[in-house]
Write a structure and sequence with these properties.
Low-confidence stretches: 1-6
Largest sheet: 2 strands, antiparallel
Strand order of the largest sheet: 1-2
Order of helices and strands: HHHEEHHHHHHHHHHHHHH
Mean pLDDT: 85
Helix content: 55-70%
Strand content: under 5%
Number of helices: 17
Radius of gyration: 30 Å
Structural class: mainly alpha
Number of strands: 2
Distance between the termini: 70 Å
């Protein structure tokens, strides 16, 4: 009977390291740890934005439970009694809600139709300007209103359109009677969309001008060799080059379709213009804050959020299937 003996390694040789027993670490986790150790200063910059969204965006979602519970000021923050879909049935049967809902759809559609393409057109026009000084001047003048407060923008708008304002003075020179723009319901949508274009068109142009700088000049050279004029170059080279930016901003605008500017409408409208100016957000303000119907307002706000989620998801899926570009 022979016994097996383990031979010792020759002197002067290093033994191989002992392997650790245990589950292997996934490569993705090792890469994340390595990136955190290497770029921890950059990752630390994300902490404050994440805290902002956590505190002011995600934690308040817990309060949506009062849409299904009776909330009384001074009582429990999550409501006193479960009432189910009572408040949902209330606003679905309320004719005032459907009026403000239609107003929201009108203003959202007009804002999307007019405010979305104008920055694209302005960026294409500025891209054709060869004088740098003129280009910078137009850019500065166009995006300056973006830095003004909404209160200032609303004040300027109301002063310009007042009965004794500059616009009515110009109309008086042509023998026209003064028009009460601010008090007439049929003028409100035009006023709102016009002020939105003036305030946001220049700022949106910056995004498209930045996207235009990424287009390869060789593509324009090849188009000129093929005999394409400036219009064909814009159609076949420029627009496809900025298409991802256009699609991304379009999806984001569709996602905020229902969230028509609350602050500006609140500053511009009055009881005389309620038939066309009152939207879901201002109706929520009056129902929740002024009338203390917080549960009723929460139910309407939840309904509005669900519609926005459906819109942005549908727009993203449609863009992915038709254009091949999407947010996720």
């Amino acid at each position: 009977m022979s016994t097996s003996t383990t031979s010792a390694p020759p002197p002067g040789t290093r033994q191989p390291p002992k392997t650790r027993h245990g589950p292997p670490v996934p490569p993705a986790r090792r890469g994340l740890r390595r990136a955190l150790r290497r770029d921890w200063q950059l990752y630390s910059l994300v902490v404050l934005p994440l805290l902002f969204f956590l505190v002011f965006r995600y934690l308040p979602m817990i309060g949506n439970v009062i849409a299904f519970r009776r909330f009384e000021p001074g009582g429990s923050i999550l409501g006193e009694q479960w009432v189910g879909l009572r408040y949902v049935e209330m606003f679905l049967s309320d004719p005032t809600f459907w009026q403000v809902f239609r107003n929201t759809l009108w203003l959202g559609a007009l804002t999307l139709v007019f405010c979305f393409p104008i920055p694209i057109v302005l960026a294409l026009l500025l891209n054709e300007v060869r004088r740098t000084a003129l280009k910078r001047f137009v850019q500065s003048v166009s995006y300056l209103p973006h830095f003004l407060s909404i209160v200032i923008v609303a004040g300027i708008t109301m002063q310009m359109l007042a009965t004794d304002g500059p616009l009515n003075h110009v109309l008086g020179w042509f023998g026209h009677d003064p028009i009460r723009f601010v008090q007439e319901p049929e003028w409100f949508r035009t006023i709102y969309v016009g002020s939105e274009i003036w305030q946001t068109a220049g700022w949106g142009t910056i995004l498209y001008l930045a996207a235009l700088t990424t287009i390869d000049d060789d593509l324009y050279e090849a188009a000129r060799i093929d005999g394409a004029n400036r219009w064909r170059q814009i159609w076949h080279v420029t627009l496809p080059g900025i298409r991802p930016t256009m699609v991304t901003l379009l999806i984001l605008n569709i996602g905020t379709f229902m969230a028509v500017g609350f602050e500006k409408i609140l500053l511009l409208y009055n009881p005389l213009t309620y038939p066309t100016a009152d939207v879901v957000s201002t109706y929520l303000y009056r129902a929740g804050v002024e009338s203390n119907s917080f549960s009723y307002a929460a139910a309407i706000g939840l309904f509005e959020a669900v519609i926005g989620l459906v819109l942005i998801t549908s727009a993203n899926q449609l863009s992915r299937r038709t254009v091949g570009t999407s947010l996720w």
